[in-house]
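Backbones bend. Shown next:

***
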Amino acid sequence: MVETEVPPLAGYTVGVTAARRADELTVLLERRGANVMQGAAIRIVPLPDDMRLRASTEDMIADPVDFVVVTTAIGFRGWVEAAEGWGLSPALLDVLAQADVFARGPKAKGAVRAAGLVESWSPASESNSEVLEHLLESGVDGKRVAVQLHGEPLPHFVGSLRAAGAEVVQVPVYRWTLPADVGPLERLLDAVLVGQVDALTFTSAPAAASVLAMAERQGRTEALLNALRGPVLPVCVGSVTAGPLLAAGIPVAQPDRPRIGALARTVTTELPARATRLRIGDRALELRGQAVVVGGVLRVVPPAPMAVLRALTASPGRVLSRPALVGVLRRHSGRDESVDAHAVETAIARLRSALGDSSLVQTVVKRGYRLAIPV
């Protein structure tokens, strides 16, 4: 292929569902050339206003726990700050200092130490399952265990501890709800379903669950599942985030380390790997979302001509008849009316103009159109 200076994500549209750090992820993706569409899937309930967190905190102070599981750094820091606002911080830190603290990963461990505490153990894998395994091996029968939730319940984790004889205190350090304005999320979902988004990113399990729930409320679950199992690449920051999608049978891409920068790098690697590449004469073509790299030059292609081009590249060099391309355009537009042979001719003309070389798409008289590739 021809070496180009085109940014790796140029021509692609990436959806961002994050509520927190959405702008940071957007900047990382745009630096790589992506067009980014934001639609926050969740809203964080302010910790000082969450009475469930206060109730769990007061319960721990009244009846101290033996073990504490810290799952996220931001959650633990917020918990301590909320307790300080309620005047409960000294009592809470005293209880935590007397317990064995298990921190899931280096960021959680850093938050624990910043609070003046020392963790008893932390897994290298940053995995909840490894924390659970270590807890069960330590022996929890008859013990009280506080589990910091990361935005949604952990039924398997909590259930396994209870089955082993532990009394579990669930600590909802932050809670998620739908955004006050769901318009951006609805527009992002619409774009995913009509093929205008190439990758959809998730930085939390609640965001993934929220997107699935919105599709269900709108009666579009099957359409969303088909999109995320096919043309749209779902990318999750880590295994916990991927949970709701995997449970729905959606394969996901995820980085080796659960970091925002690593998530952006994974998108940068995985999307180009899915691109369609072919050669027409001495020209190299690479299809990217709503653009094509032709001989090292990025050219934006309108949606209808791009639908025609993808149909032509599905069988390079083969002739597609006008009736077949009418079907392509009807499926693309979602309408049966007002799509005829003239619409095909218009789409072909716009496609040739967008590619910058009319010879790349040939007219086969009385038969249809083909890419200029020998069969």
About this structure: DSSP finds 15 helices and 16 strands in the chain. The chain has a mean pLDDT of 91.
